[in-house]
Specification:
single chain; mainly alpha; 5 helices; Tls1-like; mRNA splicing factor RNA helicase; nucleus
Length: 175
Amino acid sequence: MQGKLMEVDLGDEVRARNQAMTEKAARRLLGEVDGVDADNPDGRRAKKPRLGRDGKPWRPRNRRNSDDIKRDQLVEEILRENRLDVYDVPKTQQPQYEGDGDADDRIAEEFRREFMDAMVQRQQKKKTAAAPARAGARKADEEVLKGPKLGGSRNARAAMRDLLLKKEKEKESRR
């Protein structure tokens, strides 16, 4: 039995289908196309796909059906039940004004409140930006180190920088 393939009988139905497909392929090669295809049992040819502006086949939009909507509602309900209020900022109560003349006052008050909040935020940003106290010392270092960046290794440039800074400090201490 070594080196030989065993033939397995799949039945009369499979044998008949294989013969029909073989005959159909032979007819197709000879140019005798049968009107009825196994792919289309109703006898019509397959439609050509509609092409879009880019020349590619048109694809239908993924529309959401009722099952998708129900699933999303269920998910939203579960998320709403399990939501943590850690990140929610409590909304400030807006005073309710009535009448036409009060609308101007209300708008002016809202603008004033927003402007003051923005001003406080700008002041906080300025305080955090002004935190580095060595800004003056840094400028003095830059004045000493003015000039072109010469070649050499990083260590050699760092050694030269340290040497220049040390000389400058000695000059300042003599004065």
